[in-house]
Amino acid sequence: MDTPPVPRPLVDVVPLVRAEGLSRHYTRGSEIVDALADITLDIPRGAFAVVLGPSGCGKSTLLHLLGGIERPSQGAVTVDGVSLERASEAELTRFRRRSVGFIFQFYNLLPFISADENVALPLLAVGQARADALRAARAILDQMGLGARRGHRPAELSGGEQQRVAIARAIITRPPLILADEPTGDLDAAGAEAVVSMLRDLARDGQHTIVMATHNQRLVQASDQVIRLSSGRREPR
Ligand SMILES: Nc1ncnc2c1ncn2[C@@H]1O[C@H](COP(=O)(O)OP(=O)(O)O)[C@@H](O)[C@H]1O
Ligand SMILES: [Mg+2]
How far apart are CA 83 and CA 129, in angstroms? Predict the structure, then answer.
């Protein structure tokens, strides 16, 4: 008698990110700008995906749609089981806080508070007590080799250190999706390498899926998946 196949767990089968026919246009006066047109993609859980293309091709727009910062003009996008084009404002806010960590080119740390306070902020936003949030922030900074820097303000840190603090802030709530928009754009080669290998490791540990936008062709080497954009459209392959 044949034994039935063992079903694979759902989390392995359903991609973390699924977009179909995703488009976004902006109106600039009487002109319509197609920032993104008809993007279809799947990104599996645990992948390190790179969105590659020149300035103006729509990379940031795509990340904003995946992160629930902006809504699509057309099409569907589901991330971690949430249909973002249909979600209410309250659902989108909850999604952004719980499911997504953002990393930006210029770090976007708050200048008047210390590194550990910056890292603790997302935990405060989801209601964690301040002492617990700071304890978690310090633990993660220690893991990243930034323990000695935790009391410093951003201006007292190098660019590479600031970006590592920003990565700590992005992962402190353990969000399934990390969106990094040109995270190495302001760093030297060594700083860029450190940031990319850190993102690579986060994907490898299986807890996070990384989507990194870059115009730097060399950075695709570390990736599992490359999404090439040209004038708002996805290039085949
Ligand atoms: N808020 C906006 N209003 C009008 N046009 C925009 C807006 N945001 C982006 N664009 C346009 O959409 C296109 C894609 O922009 P963007 O996603 O920022 O590209 P990239 O991140 O690859 O440089 C560009 O032509 C840009 O000028
Ligand atoms: Mg951009």
Answer: 30
Q: State pTM to two decimals.
A: 0.93
**Cα torsion at 198, 204, 207, 212 (round to 10°)?**
50
In a domain, residue 144? The reply is: yes
Give the CATH number for residue 119.
3.40.50.300
Among the bound ligands, the one closest to the CA of 34: 1
In angstroms, the Cα distances linking 73 to 27, 65, 83 are: 11, 10, 14
Which mutation among 22, 25, 26, 39 tests ligand 1's pocket best, with the greatest number of atoms within 8 A of CB? 26
**Measuring CA to CA, which residue among 64, 66, 58, 69 is closest to residue 41?**
66
**pLDDT under 50: residue ranges of the chain:** none
Q: Tell me what the pLDDT averaged over the chain comes to.
A: 94
Q: What is the pLDDT of residues 46-95, one digit of tens each?
A: 999 999 999 999 999 999 999 999 999 999 999 999 999 999 999 999 99
- State how far the Cα of 45 lies from the Cα of 176, in Å rounded to an integer: 8
Q: Considering its fold, how many domains does the chain have in total? A: 1
